[in-house]
Fold this sequence. Notes:
oxidoreductase activity, alpha/beta, 27% helix, 6-stranded parallel beta sheet, ADH-like_C, Rossmann fold, zinc ion binding, Threonine dehydrogenase-like Zn-dependent dehydrogenase, Quinone Oxidoreductase, Chain A, domain 1, zinc
Amino acid sequence: MRATYMFGAGDVRVIDVPAPTLQAPTDAIVRVTMACVCGSDLHGYHSMPTSDEPRPMGHEFIGIIEELGSEVTGLSVGDLVISPFAFSDNTCSFCQEGFHTACKHGGWYGNVEVGGAQAELMRVPQAAGTLVKIPNDVDEKFLPSLLTLSDVYLTGYHAAHMGRVEPGKTVTVIGDGAVGLSAVLAAKQLGAEKIILMGRHTSRTDLGRKFGATHVVAERGDEGIAKVMELTDGEGSHVVLEAVGLMPAYEQAYGIVRPGGIISRVGVPQYEEAPIGFGSLFGKNAMLAGGPAPVRAYIEAAIPQVLNGEIDPGQVFDADLPLSEVAEAYRLMNDREALKVIVRP
């Protein structure tokens, strides 16, 4: 089968590899019908050392079940399914508490043990707990939005949920990528009164306004902090949703959070050490939340929202390419010529 591998920074290729097979009775084999490139995939695209052991890429997909292990329940061959970007059993104590990305028997796609989703076929461990059925006859117009439920929209929702967004709150979203725009949409769904989007790419911030942003701040650093403080009468934002993962974004976040507020991070942090002392969090009684989104906890409630037209997060996709052109998908996103790209095997 054909699958996408990264061989080093800027070097993404589609190569022929053996098709996956069932390795455990809890596995499923899914034929991927729609996948995409994630902003987090670009971290390796920027910095991965050249290697003779390339990394399989992709963790967001919709597909059709082709094989099932003997212990998989609730699913059938031929079902159309969405997969969260992490697999989980959906039964352990952490899953039951809503944190499926910490599942005791779970794990991640995009590694040599499991493979990546930018491919023709995918082995899904813990299939019964991971895969979520959608109607096989679903109107194709809904598929991009349903694909966002595998990661990007529900990662934005997780940011808002962990930030305790609610009616009357002022929310600032840092980052105008697909996750940041999804966080805007989620904050709107949760009733935020004022939503400030920090981003400087007009085509993206225009979509942010469509999703519910009431203000856009293009400035960064101290200038951006000053602008948000001006928009909040000098008080700061009740909730800051950080969807970038770089230190300057975190510094902006603690610069604009109001006393007693919450910073919720879902941008994969590219740092381990960060300020938490008096001048950043402690002095403001500010809280720090967020993490890898347990989208499996939210996906079943979100599917009807998509199918009844309540939300249309698939608008973050602005390019659609065949798997054979996946390298171009990475280039488009890396060069900011596309916000998020669908990849079709």
